[in-house]
Structures are given as structure tokens and as C-alpha cells.
Amino acid sequence: MKLLFDENLSFRLAGRLADLYPGSVQVRDAGLLGADDAVIWAYAAEHGFLVVSKDTDFYERSALLGAPPKVVWLRVGNASTRTIADLLRREHILIQRLTDDPDATFLPLDL
What's the whole-model pTM score? Predict the structure, then answer.
């Protein structure tokens, strides 16, 4: 289960969560810094990533287009990188269920 962190999230998350989400990257590290949402969406779908974002853009795209890719929507405001990492660790089972459920397209997560 690989995560693609949107531009609004720290690139440090991939390293902090590598034990649970190996192969995860931030858009910058995928060469997508400043890319349009549609480009990020296509990249995630093609490479088997779940998109993780604080913005509603990917959630709305998921509701409209379905999966792949699937979306983890972080409704956390201006939370620190550590807080976000802790949330993604705590909700690992829910994220795994999102991955495994063929009908699920997104997962909203709150602190």
C-alpha cells in the first residue's frame, strides 16, 4: 500500500511512514511538483498509489470519477507533520480496508 502525498503535505511523511507504507512518496519526489491535479491523479492510478491530501480537490474528483486511484482525505487543518504521521499510523487498518474494498473510493480522516 503506497501513498502519494499531495503538495500540501510534507515530503518527510514518506520517510516517517516507510515501515507501514513502503514505496510512498510526495509529489515533489515523483517529479510532479506544481503539476495539475489531473496529472497527479493519472500518475497515482498508473503507479498504484493512494492519493493523500488535505484539499477537497481529490476527494471531489474521487466522488465524481471513482477509483483508481483511491483517496485518503485528511480533514486536519494546519496540523503538524508529526500529527499527520501519527494519524496515518493510527488509521493504518482503515486505510488497508480502503485499499481492499473494491467499492470504496475515498476515506475521510479527522484528528
Answer: 0.96
